[in-house]
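#lab-general

N.A. 3:47 PM
ok so I finally got the sequence cleaned up, no stray characters, all 430 residues accounted for. can someone with queue access submit it? mine expired

B.Y. 3:52 PM
send it over

N.A. 3:53 PM
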Amino acid sequence: MALTGRAALAALIGALVVLAFRTAAVLLIVNGLVLAAIAADLVLAGRVRPLRMTRSGDTRVLLGETASITLTVENPGRHPVRAIVRDSWQPSAHAHPGRVLLRIPARGRATLTTALTPDRRGEKRPAAVTVRSLGPCGLAARQGRHVVPWAVRVLPPFRSRRHLPEKLSRLRQLEGQHRSLLRGQGTEFDSLREYVIGDDVRSIDWRAAARSRDLMVRTWRPERDRRILVVLDTGRTSAGRVGGVPRLDSSMDATLLLAALASRAGDRIDMIAFDRRVRARVLGATRSTVLASFTNALAPLEAELTECDMAALASAVLAVARHRCLIVLLTDLNVTAIEEGLLPRLPVLASRNRVMIAAVADPKLDELATARGDAPRVYAAAAAERARAERQRISARLRRRGVEVVDAPPERLPAALADAYLALKASGRL
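B.Y. 4:20 PM
back already:
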């Protein structure tokens, strides 16, 4: 049972009447009338429990866009129901409208459409549907709750998609260029040509030579369809915000652009997210489904407020990267974490793989480094200069170990990582 604002208004008017007459009889009459009206509303209000509810609508939506969910309320009873219906969702879903007055005819149905505009990734689920069935006077109502399951997965927005046409154009140019011919095992066969003095005799194709009058040798080209393993660091440093966006979200955007580009290039790309254990994993997805698989796996991922265990991460990577591949680690260039955690494990990771590290740079450091004027700004500039110098030092140290380093602000990181991938592919080092 629930009392409405009309009941409070009726009680207020009754109180004024009682104060005007100041007699016990008037008090009894006023209270009796109000209570009788409330009782009549409760008796005549439509029943809430028999109502049947179902949902339909969107199950996936990109972050920043709007999903539409339709709630269908069916009344199997013989009397119509006039009710205020509230479809409750978690606050981050930003459901609208909050409450709607529905008139559900006897043995009929009515619909309520709720628009969700989430501001966070992950699964969004409704709490409950609260129905307040009003009586004819509108003083009191029957109230009940119905649990109607549904889930909307909020996917990463993939804002870097705008860079994809330009990167694909560069990829097509790359595939049309002449590739230098190489010899040796483990490379991709290209064609046959006549033997010339100085050629390695091990490259002679004796079967082809038997079919012709000249000796023929095999020529090779660098393998183009390679393996890529993207490793997302979901430790505490990924929770930090740069430009109002968590580092993890910027890394996801770069991961999706790389996945879209690599799948178009014919490369096999896998992904794991790790801090102290594997938080998400996409392995063996086909080229046509890899982007959707990545997006779906990244949607509920959140940063953990724990330090990433680099030793366990290296073990997890080696367990997945059983063949030679490009390992792309998206993490922060934190000097302590890199020197104490990653560098001791780097020889194991890079022994048969090529390693690339992509990090989100904070443009605020550049602003602070150029600030002058008073003592606090000078101290802030000195601290920013020191942070930049440490970042450059650790990047140089990684490059001396043969690691490719991509360090760019959030809005430039996806394109910079794609450019680094294309550069490796063009030079045959992938």
